[in-house]
């Protein structure tokens, strides 16, 4: 039985995850409202409501909605990570910029939704609220928060503040923590890996056996909707993954299969890669490739009965098909 069969609102509805959530809602016949900035477009069929910013949302924006999936956020970018190493004042400025959107903006959104009578608020957080690499075993939802950077700090603080907000006001807050999200339309490092494989470039990943959890954007959308509707989700934190933890080298090989271009993997010891990365100022990028980041997502399956609609292989196949279609192949 669902907590709500009514309309679900989304912030960030025009983003990578927001569009996937929109499509999933519409496919299930659930009325969807998208809160976006003026000039932005939602998926066809989504009721677009325009806002000037998270701190300026009026309760009227949530009229007729029973739940909110909060996706809008300042996302992690490498130039912010680099800026944090330049000076204490610059690092603090970066942190405050993340807090303004990811903490204060999330709380303002939740308060506006509460005043409109919304009963369920789903925060899309990140595994970075816990850390950049696992503690020798898969992360669980009960592990201590040790965020590695300003983005992770802001997500960890948002989780704490929103769960406290829910306890204080009675709003049912749910926190969703995904690891790396991929799928059609993906950008950043995942897209860069596909570009390199498709061009036949050698990748120094053959000796990297670190395992990392992933989640396809369609699986994440499915889980977010379940968290917005299932009564058992109230007040809980859930990890969401595809249920498989491929090695970095294995992931590259599987992508190569689906792209029709076998990945050219060169075996370079992880220590050599890290040393070269330090010299080139690319330590953060290489750490993401050489360190394990495994995530235990059994709680959402056991508590909510949720099952990933896509396997890892199906998700990678869909992503590769999108990549090939956008490049005229």
TrEMBL record:
Alphabetized InterPro entries for the sequence: Epimerase_deHydtase, NAD(P)-bd_dom_sf, NAD(P)-dependent_oxidoreduct
SUPFAM superfamilies (alphabetical): NAD(P)-binding Rossmann-fold domains (SSF51735)
Designated name of the protein: NAD-dependent epimerase/dehydratase
GO molecular function: aldehyde dehydrogenase (NAD+) activity
Residue intervals of the NAD-dependent epimerase/dehydratase domain: 8-238
CDD domains named among the record's database cross-references: UDP_G4E_4_SDR_e
Organismal lineage: Bacteria, Pseudomonadati, Pseudomonadota, Betaproteobacteria, Burkholderiales
Single GO cellular component term: cytoplasm
